Amino acid sequence: MDKSAPYPRAIVHFDGDSFFASVEQSKDWRLRGKPVVTGGERGAVTSLSVEAKKLGAHRGMPMQEIRRVCPDVIVLAGDYTAYSIYAKRMYAIAKTFTPLVEEYSIDECFADITGLEEVHGMSYEEIAHAIKAKLEESLGITFGVGLAPTKTLAKVASKRNKPAGFTPLPTEKIEEVLSSTEIYDIWGLGGASGNRLCSLGVFSAFDYIQKTDAWLTEHGFVKPQRDTWLELKGYPVLGLSSGAHAKPHSVMVTRTFTPPSTDREYIFSQLSKNVEAACAKVRRAGMKARALSFYLKTQEFTYHGVQLDLPTALDTPPRMLAHIRARFNEVYASGIPYRASGVTLRALETEGAITPDLFGEFVAESEKSETFRALDAVNKKFGRTTMYLGSSMSALTHKEASYRSRVVHAFLPTGASGGKSLNIPFLGTVH
Fold it and tell me: Do 381 and 286 reside in the same domain of the chain?
């Protein structure tokens, strides 16, 4: 790899601005230019339009606070069918420029445009601009776009000039940009890893890339953190997983709960609910996790997390939760109100690539997997919380959960309804 070139590899990251709220505004012209939030069905804000952000609303804000802070805000229930359709359209547009597109999440994707300058008769910056323009014209929403030599740097760049900005980050500008990028803003270094690095005096991404490989080893940072370190230095170690059925590298599930709580078992139940959801995603992908991390977020927006390796590869929640409970007091403090929890399953491996251990643990866990797959089938047919673990019951039967079935009609525009369906998304302006 020639690191002296501006883009040894040319990776573009596309991140939809306020995606859910922007889709709602794209679908309904009456909402454009107005403060819109989604999440009415779950009692907390999941997405905000630019206009709502300017009025002081933020993600996770309980709906009962919305009217006080933003009297004119329009609260909508999430229309996830519509969001999925827009996401698929986003992927399809990017693939008209390059086949190497990673469908990373419902509101973002990566594209590798390395070597396509002659094909399109444009520079890398011009190709990225062309894709951005096509996305925005076709979908009626804006995107933050970053162009860089690695996936991690491309994500850094796409956040620089949001909303609707484009940031090229060639090799020679890496150190300049990373010097003004907080460590918590780096993909993969939030939560526990970010807390650990800050405790060691690493506050910016630039501080991080100044460390040596030996320093990482000495302080217990393993492959995920080392990969991020290399990516930030401009070495592309994370490949693109192109295709709709690409295997994930990790699975994260985070949720805000309202109101904040100091109840230890209720907070653990929220975490249990997240672990169940993460395991279901891993099973659907035909994979198992060898490591996990979990965290709690306080009412003051501080994070406390733990990372741990699993003794055998798992895709079911009971043993994971046993390991989490054993270390739960490392993140929970009595009397402190908490507002969110999250879990990330890491070091994912396909089932066929795992070598069974000598003591039969892997075989025993695989048998349990079959039981949970049967539960998955029931939940798919009758609703995702038809069957669940007892440890998740407190979270799932809380009044926040019952709120999902209703919409805050008082906040809806005249004639609007909570239930929405969409067959064809906005595909561009007729000229």
Answer: yes
